[in-house]
Structures are given as C-alpha cells and as structure tokens.
Amino acid sequence: MDCGSKCPRGQLLHLDVCVDEQKPRGGVLELLGRLRPQWKPQDIKMKVFTEGITNQLMGCFVGSLQESGAVLVRVYGRMTELYVDREREVEMFQILHTHNCGPQIYCSFRNGICYEFVRGNVLDDTLLTQPAIYRLIATEMGKIHSIKLESDNPVENILWKKMAQFLKLVHNAQSNTTAPHSSKLLREIPSIETLSDEMETLKRHLSQIGSPTVLCHNDLLTKNIIYDNKEGMVRFIDYEYADFNYQAFDIGNHFNEFAGTSDTDYSLYPRPELQRDWLTAYLESYKHSVGLEATVTELEVQKLYVQVCKFSLPSVFLHLFAGLQLFMGSLGNPAGQIFLH
Questions:
Q1: DSSP 8-state class, residue 107
Q2: DSSP-assigned beta bridge partners for residue 14
Q3: Nearest-CA neighbor of 109 among 46, 58, 41?
Q4: Which of 105, 129, 251, 296 is a Cys-bridge partner for 283, taking CB atoms 3.0 to 4.6 Å apart?
Q5: Which residues, 6 or more positions from 51, have their beta carbon under 8 angstroms from its beta carbon?
Q6: What is the pTM of this model?
Q7: How far is CA 259 from the centre of its chain?
Q8: By three-state DSSP, how is residue 9 classified?
Q9: d(CA 160, CA 285)
Q10: Is beta strand 112-116 parallel, antiparallel or unpaired with respect to 71-76?
Q11: What are the tens digits of pLDDT across the range 267-309?
C-alpha cells in the first residue's frame, strides 16, 4: 500500500512500500508509479550497482541512464541500523543538496530511499594521483567542509562516539564467534582492552591539536566519487557516515583510501609532495567558501599537513574494526555480517 505520507524529516515524502531484496522489481515499480508517473512500466529499465548486505542500489531509467530523470533506489541491508543512523543520513542528503553539493532525495520508503542519479562514472583508483583530478576532489571537499547549519546549537563531533560504537560491535562479534579455525587469527589481533586503551590515547592527543569540527563525508573512497569528464567536475555520493567530524580526519581518511580497501597497499599512500599540493587546493577552496582571502601560505599548509598525518591514525582504526567485522562475517557470525559490503 502507498499512503504517500509526509514524514517529519524536512517534509520528505514517505511511501509505505517495502521492496523485496530478492525480487525488487515489483516494489520498485510501485515507487516509480509515484515518483515518475509518466513512465510506462514496460519501458522501465533497472541496473543493479551494488548487491550486498549493507545495501542494494539500483538505477531506474527510461532510455539512457545518463539522461536527466533517472532514479536511484537504495534498499537497506539487514541490521545496518546498528551502525548507520538512517534519520541522519536523510538529513545529510537534504543539507548537501541545499548547498549544491549532493543529489536530491525524492522519498523514503519502509526499507530504503530514492534519490537523484548523479551523472558521470565512479572514479578509477588510478586517477587519484592525477593533479587535475585530485585538485577537483580537494576543491569539492573544501566546499562541503564550509557548510554551516542554520542553528545556534553547537554541533556534536561524532568521531569518538562512532569509534566506541564500532569497538562494541567488534567485541560482540568476537564474543559470539566459536569457529575453531578462527582461534589462530584471533590470537594475533590485539585484545579489546588494548584497542580501547589505544583509542583513548588517540582521543586525548587528537582532541587538543586544534582541528576544527566541520561537515564531513567520512567515507571518501573512490567508489563514492563520481567523475563527470564532460563537465570536468566531481561529486561525492553515499552519505551513510556523513556527519560533523574533525576536518583533518576527513582528509586523512581519504588519503588512506589511496591504499585501497580490499587489497590494501600502503606503498600507494600519497607522497608528501602530492599531499601538500592537495592541501593547497583544499585550503583555497575552503577559505574562498567561508569568505576569506583565498591566498594560502606555506605555514597553513604545513599546519594542516601535520594534523592530517595524525588524524589518519583513527581512520586506520576504523578500517581495522571494519576488517575484523569482515572476518567475523566470513565465519557466519551475524554480528560480523552487518559489516560486509
């Protein structure tokens, strides 16, 4: 049934539709009947972009996917609410779209959302080190970091809360794992107590080095960057983790992504010369966006460079937590499976 109700999240349209993960077409057509009533069901094409536990993403279109009007339908994965705040994700969609930094979100439904398709292609890893490309990425991040909410209430930095949440999930996964062949690897992993102590040490030091809290993407790997070579621009997608965080964390996390996600190779981590050029482009964009003189000094670049180097460490921690969950999930542990993408 489609009730077409309004939900309180910025008056976003909410449709009382549930899309079956195994046979999604029926539910998707019901959604498109409201969002694109002029489309004939027999003409609608669907392309699956991702099909995993975290979510299922489908592009829906008539004619060409790259034409205006295409709709993305994201079906949430099971148990993802344990670590993704879906209300906050919708809010981030709306904020970024308002500031011309993200696609329009059309509606929510019982187990997902529908939003505008961003034209272009997922960025190839090999393009990350090309100056023309990484400067576009730095410029776009500077714009997003400059966004201010229209509220007098102070924003809450989510880094340490999110890390504690992930650590708890890892602990639960380890506690519930009984597979005998997992014991050797588990002995090589630091204990939860050790990981917790390391996290507190990072928190004490990094909370005092002066990195401002800004609106961050928090998950800027290449598959979350869309490159439109015709327009010469990039856009960031996937806001499951977007929220207010340390400026230097968002940049350091992106630099860690140069090493890859599945087959990590830290020899690919950006060399200092690239980082400094990237940071210069970022600071020019950030300062311009907040209304400051866009001239960037070497002292400013050096200060941010040091902060980014330090904040790359908690980013590695989060990657470690996700990796542990990936391992637990491979053993059939439900608490670990929620982290499989």
A1: E
A2: 5, 108
A3: 58
A4: 296
A5: none
A6: 0.89
A7: 17
A8: coil
A9: 27
A10: antiparallel
A11: 999 999 999 999 999 999 999 999 999 899 999 999 999 999 9
